[in-house]
Amino acid sequence: IARLGGRAGGRGGRAGGAGDGGRADSWLDRSLYDRCITRGIPGSMMPAIYGNAYDITQAPGLVAIRYEMVHETRVIRLDSSPRTGLRSHMGDARGHFEGDTLVVETINFDPRSAYRNGSPKMKLTERFKPIGADKIEWSMTIDDPDTWTKPWTFGMTLTADPHQPLFEYACHEGNYAMRNILSAARAEEAASSSPK
Q1: Is 97 exposed, middle or buried (0-12, 13-18, 19+ CB in 10 A)?
Q2: Fewest Cβ atoms nearer than 10 Å: which of 40, 47, 133, 139?
Q3: pLDDT of 82-124, one tens digit each?
C-alpha cells in the first residue's frame, strides 16, 4: 500500500463508511456493511469470514458480477457510453478487453463507501486475466492522487467451483447484530447513569 498523501489526513472518516467500531448512538454510526447495504469495491471481491462466492456472467455488451455477501450485483458496461456522473457505492464501471483480459475502470464512488476513504478523484482499474480453465488472475490498481502518493496494486487468483452456488444472503431479515449493538449500548448507558 502506498503512503497516504497530504490531503488524505484532512478528510477523516465518513458517516456510514467504516464506522467508529465502538460508537452505537445510532444505526448511522455503524458501517454500510453492518447495515447490510454494501461492502463496496473492492470489498465485495475480497474474501470474508463466509459468503465468498460470486458469479461472473458475460452477455452482449456487459459483464455482471453477483456477490453472495450482501447480495449485490455489479453491472459493467462494455462500451464507451457516457458516464452518468452519479456517485454510487459500486461506482460507475466501464470495461473493455485487451486480448483475453477484461479491464474495468471504475470512478464516481459515493464518498460513504469510497475504498479506504478515497477522494472523489479515485479510479480503480481491475484486470481479470484467464490463467487456466478454471482460474482468473484478478488485480486492482488504486489511483487517487489526493489520497496516496502513488498508484498501488494488489490481486489474487479466482477459482471457479461449480459445486459452490450463491446462497441467499438475507441480511436484513436476520440482522440481529444491529438491534443487539444498539440495545447493548442503551443498556450500558443506563447502567452507567444509575446510582451505585
Answers
A1: exposed
A2: 133
A3: 998 999 999 999 999 999 999 999 999 999 999 999 999 999 9
What gap in Å lies between CA 89 and CA 43, rounded to an integer?
Answer: 11
Q: What is the pLDDT of residue 15?
A: 43
Comparing CA positions, the residue from 161, 152, 157, 37 lying closest to residue 89 is 37
What's the Rg (C-alpha) of the chain?
19
**What DSSP string describes 99-132?**
TTEEEEEEE-B-TTT-GGG--TT-EEEEEEEEEE
Q: How far apart are CA 41 and CA 114, in angstroms?
A: 8
C-alpha 179/C-alpha 42 separation (Å) is 27
> Mean pLDDT score of the chain, rounded to an integer?
87
pLDDT of residue 128: 98
**Do the strands 54-59 and 62-67 form a parallel or antiparallel pair, or are they unpaired?**
antiparallel
Burial of 68 (0-12, 13-18, 19+ CB in 10 A): buried
Query: Cis link prior to 195 (omega < 30° from 0)?
Result: no
Task: List Cα–Cα distances, 149 to 2, 7, 69, 91, 152, in angstroms.
Answer: 6, 10, 32, 22, 9
CA distance 25 to 28: 8
